[in-house]
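Please, structure for the following, as tokens.
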Amino acid sequence: MNWKKNDRIRWSNVFVPIPIATLSNALAYLPTTTAAVAKASDEQLGYQIGSAIGLAVIVSIVASVTATSSGSEEMVLNHGYQEAFFCAMNAYMGAILALVLVRSLKDKS
């Protein structure tokens, strides 16, 4: 990207929206989320936290795979998402197996 050409336009496109997004996040999103989960049960909160952690892991896998892959943009993104969903499916199957095996071991004892 050539930052010399139209430098003023590009910097204003980056640094003007950042404070607006930060302010809107602080004034709208965070209080709304706090109000939404204030009366939630522990089970519901665990689901919310688990979903956030799962999404963070998926995004991290996609980012790391796409950063180290080479090829066209479409192929690199496709490869990143395939790897992320493959890892997510393995984790899901592992969780199901763990639940089944733990329950069967409890039944035996």
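The two ends are 65 Å apart (CA to CA). The chain has a mean pLDDT of 82.
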